[in-house]
Design goal:
The complex is a heterodimer. Helices cover 69% and strands 5% of the residues of chain A. Chain A is built from 27 helices and seven strands. In chain A, strands 1-2 form a two-stranded antiparallel sheet. In chain A, helix 1 (3-23) runs antiparallel to helix 2 (31-53) and helix 14 runs antiparallel to helix 20 (486-504). Chain A is globular and about 95 Å long. The N and C termini of chain A lie far apart (61 Å). The relative contact order of chain A is 0.07. Chain B has helices spanning 3-38, 48-57, 69-84, 104-124, 128-159, 164-170, 179-195, 214-217, 223-248, 259-286, 295-315, and one strand at residues 61-64. The longest helix of chain B is centred in the first third of the chain and has 36 residues, at 3-38. The two termini of chain B are 28 Å apart. The chains are: A mainly alpha, B mainly alpha. At the A-B interface, helix 17, helix 18, helix 22, strand 5 and helix 24 of A face strand 1, helix 3, helix 4, helix 5 and helix 9 of B.
C-alpha cells in the first residue's frame, strides 16, 4: 500500500464524513462516525507505513497549487504543502489511534443527544476536528499551519459550547476562545520573526537559515513558542482554560481534546526547537522548560485531587501529564545543547524517547478514562463524585475499563504508564552526568517532585475510582444506572487492551520511538535505549534494566503460591456478612467516606500551595447554643487567578470602560472620527 | 546458558523466595519480642506469627456484603507483588538470576501497586474506617515516595546503576559509611519506619480509629485473606530492613556462588537484619506516636536528609560511576 495515497484518503474521508453528516437522516446519524472510523483506520496504516519504512511523504494540495499559478507574485502561497516525516507520522498515528476507538464509542454516546441537540452539527464538527489536527501536525508552511491551528481552535470552541444551554459551558468556551487566541497571537509573532529573517513562510526555508540567529531574536523565538504552544498545552500558569473547557465538551470530544489536541502543542514545541531551531538551541531553554514542567506536574495533580467533578479531575490530570512529558523534552534540550566537550546526544535522544512514550501512553489512558467518565455520566447524569458510588455492580464493564486506565495512569507495573515513567526517571539519574551545578541540583529536586507527583496521581485515582465505583451508592442516581451500550464498551475495551499491551510490548515500541528521537537530534542510528529481548535499559553500561513482560510473568508465576494457601482446608469458602458498623444496626451511605473527606489530608499537607478556604455559616435561634442550620462552604482559590488573571482582567475591563467614552452613539460623532482619521492619514501617510 | 547454570539459577531464585517468605514472620516476631522485653513483658513466643498465619489460613473468609471483586483480588495482588520483590532485591547474595526484570525504580512502583489495591479495598467495604485508612495511607505515601526516591538516587548515582544487585555489589565495602551514604541511610530509615507502619507514624498493634492507618484499610479482612495481607506486611518490613542492610551496609554479602561466601553472606545478613530490627524496636519503644498531621514534618525531615545526602555527594567530589 502507498502511504501517500492512504494519507490523502484519510483526509478526504474526514471531509466526506463532515459532508455526509449534513445530509443524513436521523436514522443514519451514525454514518458520520463510520466515516471517521474509516478515516482514522487509513490514517493509522499510513502513519505506520511512514514510521516503519522510514520514508517521509510530501503531499501537495492541488487547490493551493493552482492558486499559486494564478497569483505568481504572491510568494506567500509558494510550496504550501504537507510533509509527513517521522515526527509528524508519530502524531498522525496518535490522532488516528485515538480517533478510532473514540468514534466507535461516539456511535453509542450520541444517542444521548437524540432529539435534544443538532446531530448534524455534531457530526460535522466531529469529523472536522481530527482533520484539523491531522493538518496541523503535517503542515510544512507557517501560514498553512496557522490556518489549520485556527481551524482546530474554532472547531473545538463550537464543540465546547455545544451544550450552550448551560451558562457554565458558554463561560468555559469564552475563556478558551480568548486564551487560545492570545496563544495564536504569540504564534503569529513567532512566524513573523521567522519570515523576517528568511523571507519565506516555508518550514524548509526556516531550516535553511537555522544556525544563523543572533541572541535576541533567538530568545524571543523561544519565549514566543513557549507561550504560544504552552497556552494550548496547558502549562501552568497558562492552564486555567483547560479544566473548564475540556469537561464542557461532549465526552468523545473531551477524550480527543485531552488525548491528542493538547499534544499538538507538544508537536509544535518539538518542531520549533528540535527541527527549525536545532543548531541555535540554548541549554538554559531546557532548564526553563524543566522548571515549568515540574511545576505543572505538581500543581496539576494537586488540583485534580481536590476536584469533585470526575471530568474536571481528568482535565487537571492532563495538565500534570503534559508536565511529565515536558520534563522529558526539557531534559532532552539540556542534554542536546549543553556546551561541553562530551556530547550528550545519546542522552538527549533517550530523554526524547521517554517523552514520546509518555505522550503516546497519555493519549491511550486519558482517552480511556474520559470515555469511562462519559459512560458514568450517561448512566447517572451526574459527574459529581459525592453522588456516585458502588457503580461497579451496575456497570461492571465500565468499571473494569476505568480501573485499567487508573492503574495505567498511576504508573503501576506492568502497564504502559510505568514504562514511560521509568524511562523518565532513568534519564533524570543519567542526567547527573552533565557537569554543571545547576543541573546537579535541579535534577534530583525534579526527580523528587516527579516521585511526589507519582504518589499523588495514585492517590487521585484511588479516590476517583474508589469513590465512583466502590462501596455503596451515595444517591439514587446510581440505582437507576444501566451499563452503557455495546459500542461504548467496545471503544473503552480497545483502549484498555492497548494500555496493557503497550506496557508488555514496550521493547517493540522503543526502537520505533528511537528512530524518531534520533532524527530529532540529527544523529541517525545512534544507540539510545538498549533493547535486548524483553529487557529495556538506558544508554549506559549496566545502568539498570527493566522488563515489563518479565515482571508480568513473575507476578503470574508467583500467583499459584497465593492460590495454594487458599486451598488449605475449605478452599475458596466465603461467607457474606454486613460490614462491621461499630455495633450500630446498619451503615448508611452517608457514613461512607466522601471524596472531600478523602482529600482532606492532602489539603492539609499542601495547604500553602492550594490555599483551601473554609467558611462556616451558622444560623442560630435566640440562643447561640441552638443552631438551626450550619452550612460549610469549602473552596480553593488558585494562586494564579488571584495574583495574575484577576488583576489582568480587571485592567482590561477598566481600560475598555474608559475607551467606551468615545462611543457616544451619535452618528455625527462617528462622522467626525472618520474625518479626523482621514486627516491624520493624509498628513502622515502621504 | 547451559544446564548447570540454569539449575543453579533456579535454585538461587527458589532459595531467595523461600527465605524471604519464611524469614518475614520471624523478623516481625523479633521486633515484638524486643519491644516486650523493653516494656518488661515476656511477650509472645518467637513462633507466634507462624501459628497465627497457620490458624488464619485454615479459617473461612467473611466478605462484607457491599464489597466487590476488588476486595477479592486485593490480597492476591498485595501478596504476589510483595513477594515478587525477592526476585530483584539481593538478600544474602548479589547474584540475582532474575534481577534484570526490575530495578529500584520498579521496586518503588511495585510497592505502589500493593498500596493502590490495598487502598481500593479499604474503600470497597463501605465502612468509614476503610476510607479513613485509605485516605491517610495515600496522603502520607505522597511524601514518603519523594524521600525514598532521593535516598535511592544517592545509592544509584554512587554505584552507577539502579539495579539492586549491582548497587549492593559495587557499594564501597568500607567499615565506615561515606557522609552521603550516612544521610541517605538515615533518610531511608525514616521512610522504612513510615512505610512499615512503625510507631512514630502508625502503630501495627492497635485498632484505634484516631491513629490507625494500615490497620484501618484491612479492617474488613478475615481468615485466609487476612493471612495473605499480614504476611505481605511482614515481608514489607523485611524488605525495608534488607534494603537498609544491603544497599548501605553490604558487609559480607556474597558476590559469587562458593559455599563459604554464601555462608558468610547468610550469617552476615541474619546478623544485620536482626540488629536493624532491634534498633527499630528500640525506637518504637522510646518515642511516642505522632499526631497524624505532625507526621508530614517527620517525613519532610527524611526528605531533607536524602537531599543533603545527594548534595554532599557532589560537594565531596563524588562522581557518578555511570558509563555513558
Amino acid at each position: 500500500m502507498d502511504a501517500h495515497l492512504l494519507f490523502i484518503f484519510s483526509a478526504v474521508l474526514y471531509l466526506a464524513g463532515a459532508v455526509s453528516a449534513l445530509f443524513g437522516s436521523p436514522k443514519t446519524r451514525w454514518g458520520a462516525y463510520l466515516f471517521a472510523i474509516a478515516a482514522s483506520l487509513t490514517g493509522l496504516i499510513s502513519s505506520l507505513l511512514v514510521l516503519l519504512n522510514n520514508s517521509p511523504i510530501t503531499v501537495h494540495i492541488p487547490i493551493l497549487q493552482s492558486l499559486k499559478d494564478l497569483t505568481p507574485t504572491l510568494s506567500l502561497f509558494s510550496n504550501m504543502g504537507l510533509h509527513v516525516d517521522a515526527l509528524s507520522a508519530f502524531f498522525v498515528l496518535l490522532i488516528s489511534m485515538l480517533t478510532l476507538p473514540v468514534s466507535i464509542y461516539a456511535i453509542g454516546y450520541v444517542r444521548e443527544y437524540e432529539g435534544k441537540k443538532s446531530q448534524e452539527l455534531l457530526g460535522v464538527l466531529y469529523n472536522l476536528f481530527p482533520l484539523s489536527m491531522l493538518l496541523v501536525v503535517t503542515a510544512n508552511n507557517a501560514l498553512l499551519f496557522l490556518i489549520c491551528w485556527e481551524l482546530m481552535t474554532l472547531v473545538t470552541y463550537f464543540l465546547v459550547t455545544f451544550d450552550h444551554e448551560n451558562p457554565e459551558n458558554v463561560r468555559a468556551g469564552s475563556l478558551y476562545f480568548i486564551m487560545a487566541h492570545v496563544g495564536t497571537a504569540f504564534l503569529i509573532a513567532l512566524f513573523v520573526l521567522f519570515y523576517q529573517h528568511s523571507g519565506s513562510l516555508d518550514f524548509d526555508s526556516f531550516r535553511q537559515i537555522a544556525g544563523s540567529w543572533s541572541e535576541l531574536p533567538k530568545t524571543l523565538l523561544f519565549f514566543f513558542a513557549l507561550i504560544g504552544f504552552g497556552m494550548k498545552a496547558g502549562i501552568v500558569p497558562l492552564h486555567i482554560w483547560l479544566p473548564e473547557a475540556h469537561p464542557a465538551a461532549p465526552t468523545p470530544i473531551s477524550a480527543l481534546m485531552s488525548g491528542v489536541m493538547i499534544k499538538t502543542a507538544i508537536y509544535g514545541l518539538l518542531r520549533i526547537y528540535f527541527d527549525l531551531l536545532r543548531p541555535d538551541m540554548e541549554w538554559w531553554w531546557g532548564v526553563v522548560i524543566l522548571a515549568l514542567a515540574t511545576i505543572s506536574a505538581v500543581i496539576g495533580i494537586l488540583f485534580a485531587l481536590i476536584e469533585r467533578d470526575l471530568k474536571r479531575i481528568l482535565a487537571y490530570s492532563s495538565v500534570e501529564n503534559i508536565g511529565i512529558i515536558l520534563i522529558g523534552v526539557g531534559l532532552a534540550m539540556i542534554f542536546y545543547a549543553y556546551p561541553s566537550s562530551v556530547k550528550f546526544e545519546t542522552l538527549a535522544s533517550f530523554a526524547l524517547i521517554a517523552a514520546l512514550f509518555h505522550l503516546a501512553n497519555h493519549t491511550v489512558f486519558k482517552g480511556l478514562l474520559f470515555m469511562g467518565a462519559g459512560a458514568v455520566f450517561q448512566a447517572t447524569h451526574t459527574r459529581n463524585l459525592e453522588h456516585l458510588g458502588g457503580l461497579i455492580r451496575w456497570m461492571p464493564w465500565t468499571a473494569a475499563c476505568f480501573l485499567v486506565g487508573a492503574v495505567a495512569i498511576s504508573a503501576l507495573p506492568p502497564l504502559n504508564g510505568f514504562v514511560s515513567e521509568w524511562l523518565i526517571f532513568q534519564s533524570l539519574i543519567l542526567g547527573l552526568a552533565v557537569p554543571d551545578l545547576v543541573v546537579k541540583v535541579a535534577l534530583p529536586v525534579c526527580a523528587a517532585l516527579l516521585a511526589l507527583t507519582g504518589a499523588l496521581v495514585a492517590a487521585c485515582f484511588v479516590r476517583a475510582f474508589g469513590i465512583t465505583f466502590l462501596a455503596r451508592p451515595r444517591s439514587d442516581k446510581v440505582e437507576q444506572a444501566r451499563e452503557v451500550p455495546l459500542p461504548m464498551r467496545f471503544g473503552m475495551a480497545v483502549l484498555a487492551l492497548l494500555a496493557l499491551s503497550m506496557g508488555l510490548t514496550a521493547t517493540a515500541i522503543v526502537p520505533v520511538l528511537s528512530n524518531i528521537a534520533s532524527s530529532l537530534v540529527n544523529s541517525p542510528g545512534i544507540e539510545t535505549a538498549l533493547v535486548n529481548g524483553t529487557i529495556l535499559s538506558p544508554p549506559a553500561a549496566n545502568h539498570g534494566t527493566v522488563s515489563p513482560l518479565g515482571l508480568a510473568w513473575a507476578f503470574l508465576f508467583l500467583l499459584p503460591i497465593g492460590i495454594w494457601f487458599m486451598l488449605i482446608r475449605s478452599p475458596f469458602q466465603r461467607r457474606i456478612a454486613p460490614t462491621w458498623a461499630c455495633g450500630l444496626s446498619t451503615l448508611s451511605p452517608q457514613m461512607e467516606y466522601t471524596a472531600t473527606g478523602f482529600s482532606k489530608p492532602i489539603r492539609m499537607i499542601f495547604r500553602s500551595l492550594i490555599q483551601p478556604r473554609k467558611e462556616i455559616i451558622e444560623e442560630t435561634d435566640e440562643s447561640s447554643y441552638v443552631k438551626r442550620r450550619v452550612r460549610v462552604r469549602l473552596d480553593v482559590q488558585s494562586p494564579f487567578d488571584r495574583s495574575f488573571y484577576s488583576p489582568v482582567s480587571a485592567f482590561i475591563l477598566k481600560s475598555s470602560r474608559s475607551i467606551r467614552k468615545i462611543q457616544s452613539g451619535s452618528i455625527n460623532a462617528y462622522l467626525a472620527y472618520i474625518f479626523l482619521a482621514l486627516v491624520v492619514l493624509l498628513i502622515f501617510a502621504r | 546458558m547451559n544446564w548447570t547454570e540454569l539449575i543453579t539459577g533456579l535454585v538461587m531464585i527458589l532459595i531467595q523466595l523461600a527465605l524471604f517468605l519464611l524469614l518475614a514472620p520471624l523478623v516481625t516476631a523479633w521486633v515484638r519480642k524486643v519491644k516486650a522485653i523493653m516494656q518488661n513483658r515476656q511477650g509472645p513466643r518467637m513462633m507466634q506469627p507462624y501459628s497465627d498465619l497457620w490458624k488464619l489460613l485454615r479459617k473461612e473468609v467473611i466478605q462484607p456484603a457491599t464489597a466487590s471483586w476488588i476486595f477479592t483480588i486485593t490480597p492476591y495482588v498485595v501478596f504476589v507483588t510483595t513477594l515478587s520483590v525477592a526476585l530483584i532485591v539481593p538478600i544474602f547474595t548479589t547474584i540475582l538470576p532474575l534481577g534484570f526484570i526490575g530495578d529500584v525504580i520498579a521496586l518503588v512502583y511495585i510497592l505502589a501497586t500493593a498500596r493502590f489495591f490495598t487502598a481500593l479495598a479499604g474503600l470497597d467495604a463501605g465502612s468509614p474506617f476503610g476510607g479513613l485508612g485509605s485516605s491517610r495511607e495515600m496522603s502520607l505515601a505522597s511524601i514518603i515516595e519523594p524521600a525514598m526516591m532521593l535516598a535511592i538516587f544517592t545509592a544509584a548515582v554512587t554505584a552507577g546503576s539502579t539495579n539492586l544487585g549491582t548497587i549492593a555489589a559495587q557499594a564501597d565495602v568500607g567499615l565506615l559509611l561515606t557522609p552521603a551514604h550516612l544521610f541517605a541511610f538515615l533518610g531511608l530509615f525514616i521512610v522504612a519506619m513510615a512505610e512499615t507502619g512503625r510507631i512514630p507514624v502508625d502503630n501495627p498493634a492497635t485498632h484505634l480509629e484516631l491513629t490507625m492507618i494500615h490497620e484501618a484499610m484491612i479492617l474488613e479482612y478475615s481468615g485466609k485473606y487476612l493471612a495473605l495481607m499480614e504476611w505481605a506486611s511482614s515481608m514489607k518490613l523485611l524488605l525495608f530492613l534488607t534494603l537498609l542492610a544491603n544497599v548501605f551496609l553490604p558487609w559480607g554479602i556474597s558476590n559469587d556462588l562458593s559455599l563459604v561466601s554464601l555462608g558468610v553472606g547468610a550469617v552476615g545478613y541474619g546478623l544485620k537484619i536482626f540488629a536493624l530490627a532491634t534498633v527499630m524496636a528500640v525506637i518504637e519503644c522510646s518515642t511516642a506516636k505522632l499526631r497524624l498531621f505532625r507526621v508530614p514534618d517527620l517525613l519532610a525531615a527524611s526528605f531533607v536528609l536524602s537531599l543533603i545526602a545527594l548534595i554532599l555527594f557532589y560537594l565531596l567530589g563524588g562522581e557518578s560511576h555511570a558509563v555513558l
